[in-house]
Amino acid sequence: MAASQTIDLTNLVYDFKSIVDPLDLGELFPVAQPLEVELGCGDASFLAEYARRHPATNFLGVERLLGRIKKLDRKGRLARLTNLRGVRIESAYFLQYLLPAQCAEAVHIYFPDPWPKKKHHRHRLINAAFPSLARRVLRPGGVVYLRTDDRDYFAQMTEVFGAAAEFERVATPEELAGVLTDFERGFQAQGIPTLAAAYRSR
Known about the structure:
This protein is α/β, with parallel strands linked by helices.
């Protein structure tokens, strides 16, 4: 039976059969094509629009909060996006244990929780261990795209990736930068600039 006949697209949020075994991407998408992942996809404003613009790529949104992942499901189904799916799980765990190795062309992390208090910095997603997690799931030449409004966190992001020999800094494509997240629209309305960087795996 063809994959498109067995995959349920009436619910775009994948129900894990196991949280210890690697994910079978063939169970998520009706067509096997390049994959991009957004960690902390929020209300899926960015991901749903980007998936609509790029039907020849599959997009997977990762979000811990139930209300937000439900918004991805609703937006994706309203737009009839067969190339969009979501998973509800913690991002670092998903990268380390569940996403198959070298499966993604890009990882997007936009406006992650900055944990502004110094004693809470250990909770930040982008830390010294993150480049290794990202490189594990990226194909050779795959890119990590970062955005934040927090200057201190941005400094940490660039320091972490600047110290990672397995990555080199590259420009963010204009078309990608033009697709905004819900947080980004709000910040721009307040005159708060977006700080962005991108790093390609060697």
